[in-house]
TrEMBL record:
SUPFAM superfamilies: DnaK suppressor protein DksA, alpha-hairpin domain (SSF109635), Glucocorticoid receptor-like (DNA-binding domain) (SSF57716). A zinc finger (dksA C4-type) spans 79-103. InterPro entries: DksA-like_N (IPR048487), DnaK_N (IPR037187), Znf_DskA_TraR (IPR000962). Residues 74-105 form the Zinc finger DksA/TraR C4-type domain. GO terms for molecular function: zinc ion binding. This is TraR/DksA family transcriptional regulator.
């Protein structure tokens, strides 16, 4: 087991949850519009909100996949800006972090 195995497991679980939620949203967005104009307006407003949620989910999915890739290729835990080690406490709090706390706050 790698030193980041627990984080990888948590990221994998979170990824599965997000993918499932995104699929449900995308299925809902594909529904045909109601014949009633008033219902269409409501559906379109709901769809706009759902599309925003879907975008946020897709962004997090991408960040998690990149974090898992970094774990796999051995670059996880290294600051993308300064190259120093990202503290384990930071990674546990924000597993998708790509920068150390110093670089992230600068």
């Amino acid at each position: 087991m790698t030193e980041y195995a627990k984080i990888a497991e948590q990221l994998t679980d979170r990824l599965a949850q997000l993918v499932t939620r995104a699929e449900v949203i995308e299925d809902d967005l594909r529904h045909p519009l109601d014949a009633d104009w008033a219902e269409q307006a409501i559906d379109l407003a709901d769809d706009e909100a759902l599309a925003g949620v879907d975008e946020v989910l897709r962004n997090e999915i991408q960040q998690i996949r990149l974090a898992l890739l970094r774990i796999e290729n051995g670059t996880y835990g290294t600051c993308a800006k300064c190259g120093k080690e990202i503290g384990l406490k930071r990674l546990e709090a924000r597993p998708i972090a790509t920068r150390c706390i110093k670089c992230a706050s600068a």
